[in-house]
Amino acid sequence: LxxxxxxxxxxxxxxxxxxxxxxxxxxxxxxxxxxxxxTAIRLRPSYKDSYLNRGVVLGKLGKMDAAISDFNTVxxxxxxxxxxxxxxxxxxxxxxxNERAAFYMERARK
Length: 110
Description:
Elements: H1 2-8, H2 13-26, H3 30-43, H4 48-60, H5 64-77, H6 82-94, H7 98-109
Helix pairs in contact: 1-2, 2-3, 3-4, 4-5, 4-6, 5-6, 6-7
């Protein structure tokens, strides 16, 4: 479906790539999801959800530095994004940086 939307509505392709990436992510097709999230970001760099979800996929693949970078980009776009704070807390906890994990968890609660 999303592949057809990409062909028919080129002016809205960033959302089609984003939605197709979400579908790939749900099907645990990480490589395909990463590719489509990256394309969505290239087409609409201000769309924070693409960074957030790409960060989640990267984190599941153990690429914590790249995931943290995406979550920080979300915070540059929206400093109050609860999901970005929560995901940063999780990423830093996995890396064993409990001080940063606690900082971002506290930020998520505010």
